[in-house]
Amino acid sequence: MTAPRRLVVGISGATGIAYGIRVLELARAAGLETHLVVTPAGQQTRAYETDLSARDLAALADVAHRPADIGAAIASGSFRTAGMIVAPCSIRTLSAIAYGNGDNLLTRAADVTLKERRRLVLLVRETPLTLGHLRAMTAVTETGGIVMPPVPAFYLRPASVADIVEHTAARALDLLGIDVPGLPRWGEQPATADIGIDNKEAENE
Ligand SMILES: Cc1cc2nc3c(=O)[nH]c(=O)nc-3n(C[C@H](O)[C@H](O)[C@H](O)COP(=O)(O)O)c2cc1C
Predict the structure, then answer these.
(1) Alpha-helical regions (H) of the chain
(2) What CA–CA distance (Å, rounded) separates 11 from 1?
(3) pLDDT digits over 69-127, tens only?
(4) Pocket test for ligand 1, best of 9, 11, 15 (most atoms within 8 A of CB)
(5) What burial class does residue 119 get, using C-beta atoms within 10 Å of its C-beta: 0-12 exposed, 13-18 middle, 19+ buried?
(6) Whole-number Å distance between alpha carbons of 173 and 165
(7) Does the beta carbon of 95 lie inside 6 Å of ligand 1?
(8) How does the average pLDDT of the chain come out, rounded?
């Protein structure tokens, strides 16, 4: 049975909606059918952080579901998907997912993803973290989820915020086995970094 070319994307109310937007764009470019659910708090951050309307955001997905529609296709395990990415993932949404609280379509779809043993990637964003936050991350990891805080890799020398967002969104898709052309991989790129120590210098030390 081959995995369907279908991805569920959740956007919750943590800062960093740009990550979810880029995941949707890259998934579309990769030919995936995307199913989007945005929480009311996610819509609030959209308004703060972008010039997109709710309609513009919905148009980035093949199907946009209402968070209250807990009867939507993605609420059922029989609707096969390649997995789900929550980007960004608030602590509230993380906690609900960690403890199986399917209180809206996003958290229900995430719980379904876990129960069907599919990949669930959570771009959890908060800082600093309390012990409660860390415990929820542990719980969701024990249940099979992947906690992937959107933390930039500076060795890639990002030139812009867009570069940082691009790399993280592509890595999240990579975790689901979805290829993003041009994703820089350590050891596969021509060397771009001068780490300031060459062999001669090292010999003279
Ligand atoms: C501008 C803004 C930024 C926020 N950033 C974060 C954040 O980075 N992490 C977080 O856990 N909550 C953040 N919140 C709070 C969440 O939106 C709030 O906890 C909300 O209840 C989350 O609901 P949801 O998980 O259903 O989306 C932010 C709220 C606003 C208005």
Answers:
(1) 17-29, 40-49, 54-58, 91-98, 105-115, 131-142, 161-175, 199-204
(2) 29
(3) 999 999 999 999 999 999 999 999 999 999 999 999 999 999 999 999 999 999 999 99
(4) 15
(5) buried
(6) 12
(7) no
(8) 92
Q: Is the CB of 42 under 6 A from ligand 1?
A: yes
Find out if CATH 3.40.50.1950 is the number for domain 6-204.
yes
pLDDT in tens, 171-201: 999 999 998 887 877 777 654 545 455 545 5
**Domain residue limits, the chain:** 6-204
Give first-to-last CA distance, the chain, whole Å: 58
Q: How far is the CA of 111 from the centre of ligand 1 (A)?
A: 20
